[in-house]
Amino acid sequence: MVTQTAWETAALRLLEDVYTFVASGPRTHSGWQSDVLAVMNREVGDPRGWNTLDWDAGNDEKAADGPSYPFLPLSREALTERLYLVTSETAVRLLVSMTYDWGPVESEEDETEVLADARTLLGRYGNEIACYSNITDARTSPSPDLSAGVNGWTPLTRYDGDFGFVVVSPEEVGVFWSFNPV
Questions:
Q1: DSSP 8-class letter at 170
Q2: How does pLDDT run across 29-44, given as a tens digit for each residue?
């Protein structure tokens, strides 16, 4: 069982210095897409009261762009069309890629630490999870080779570059997203 302290510590170590959005919400709909959109729109809080990482929370300049900023205002159908099923190990690797500016890990020692933190983040959701990502390599394989980093995505934001994944469990959803606002 992952504790709040372990989860929050791992999230900060991995993603505190990276422009990301990390938030969880409750499962309240039969379709996970509505629950994920509620998290992206900041309509729900973390069901456990755990911290989120949201660089744009409370940013009045961006508030005019809507509650989902920097995410596009998506429908359930549009979200489904842009996300592809990936394995939980691929989701772990995506978290690692977020940490290293979308590229490969710099050393074996670093890799061991960041993989442990990434697994801690996913461990919160239990073993019965499904993960979905917008990386283009996931169109053809739920377990693409990410050894060279992420090289393509289907946009979900207003930026030129974004990638991430959602995790869906019977009780919760999580959104882990990285942005490149160039």
A1: S
A2: 889 999 999 999 999 9
